Amino acid sequence: MEVFKASVQYNDLKGSAAADRADMTDAAKWLKDNGHITDEYVVGISMWAGENHGTHRDPVSVKFLVSSLNGYDNIPEMLQSSGDPIKVREIRLDMNVADFFALFKRFEITLSNAGLIEGRTYAAI
């Protein structure tokens, strides 16, 4: 079993991420168009880039967690009733970072030392 939470070796910087699905090609459409899913839904996405040492080199490792609705009407209902651990199928792929970010309309990541200012207000001077 795995926990769905970002973590790296030292966790020097911690934060959060938020994204909007792209209008034309989101992760589910991309997975369908590339033959990875048919009737499943994307319930989670994880991207890992590492060992860059000052210069990024593609690819990045992407994990898509997918599931069918299992008789439920929508994803939140299915996940709420599934209990722990949730049962998902994991699709692991290597992607160019530009192709990964193309799955989203907008994407933001926040990082701070050990996550100490996550969720805090600040005044830029």
Could you describe the 3D structure shown?
This protein is an alpha+beta fold. It contains 3 helices and 5 strands. The protein has a 3-stranded antiparallel beta sheet with strand order 2-3-4. Strands 1-5 form a two-stranded antiparallel sheet. It starts with 12 loop residues before the first strand and ends in a 12-residue tail after the last strand. The mean pLDDT is 95.
Summarize the structure.
With 125 residues, the protein is of the alpha+beta class. The chain is built from 3 helices and 5 strands; from the N terminus they run E-H-E-E-H-E-H-E.
Core attributes:
three-stranded antiparallel sheet, 3 helices, 16% helix, 34% strand, globular
Mean pLDDT: 95
Tally of alpha and pi helices: 3
| Neighbour order of strands in the largest sheet | 2-3-4
Low-confidence stretches: none
- Succession of helices and strands: EHEEHEHE
* Cα-to-Cα separation, first versus last residue: 45 Å
Report the sheet-strand fraction.
25-35%
Shape descriptor: globular
Radius of gyration over alpha carbons?
17 Å
The percent of residues in helical segments reads 10-25%
Class inferred from helices and paired strands: alpha+beta
In total, the number of strands is 5
Main sheet attributes: strand count, strand direction, barrel closure: 3 strands, antiparallel
